[in-house]
Amino acid sequence: MRKALIVDDAKVVRVSLSRIMKQLGFETLEAADGQQAIDQIAAHPDTCLIMLDWNMPVMNGYDFLLHLRSIPEHVTQPKVVMVTTETGMNSMLKALAAGADEYIMKPFDKDMIAGKLDILGIDYD
Ligand SMILES: [Mg+2]
Fold it and tell me: How far is the CA of 74 from the centre of ligand 1 (A)?
C-alpha cells in the first residue's frame, strides 16, 4: 500500500490529515517534528508522499526538507507537499527552492488534497 508520512506538531492536524489520506487509500505514518520525520523515513524508505508542516519544535519543516533532499539520489525521493499557514510568497518560493513539490494552505480539505495528488501524478482511491 502507498505510504504517506504526515508531519505536524498539532495532533488534531495529524488526525485530520491521516483520516483524509486513509480515505484516499494510503497507509499513514505520523511525526510530530522534523527529527521524528527523519526517523520515520529511515524506517520506511518506501514512503511516497510527505505532508509537511512548517512551524514545529525541535526541527521545523523547512530544515527537514533540506535534510531530506540532501539524501543521496539513489534513494527514491518522496513527493513533499507543504501544509502550512506560512503562505507568503517568500516562504512558498523558499520551500519550492528547497525541494517542496506542492503547497497547501491550512485549512485543507479532501478535495484540495486530491487535487494536489492529481498535479503530482500520485494515484489514490
Ligand atoms: Mg505547526
Answer: 30
Q: Is residue 55 part of a domain?
A: yes
All cell numbers assigned to 93: 518560493
User: Could you tell me the distance, in angstroms and rounded to a whole number, from the CA of residue 53 to the centre of ligand 1?
Assistant: 6
C-alpha of residue 48 to centroid of ligand 1, in Å: 22
Q: How many domains does the chain have?
A: 1
1: which residues sit within 8 A by CB, 6+ positions away? 25, 26, 27
Is 18 part of any domain?
A: yes
CA of residue 47 to ligand 1 center, whole Å: 21
Q: pLDDT tens across 67-102, in order?
A: 999 987 656 799 999 999 987 889 999 999 999 999
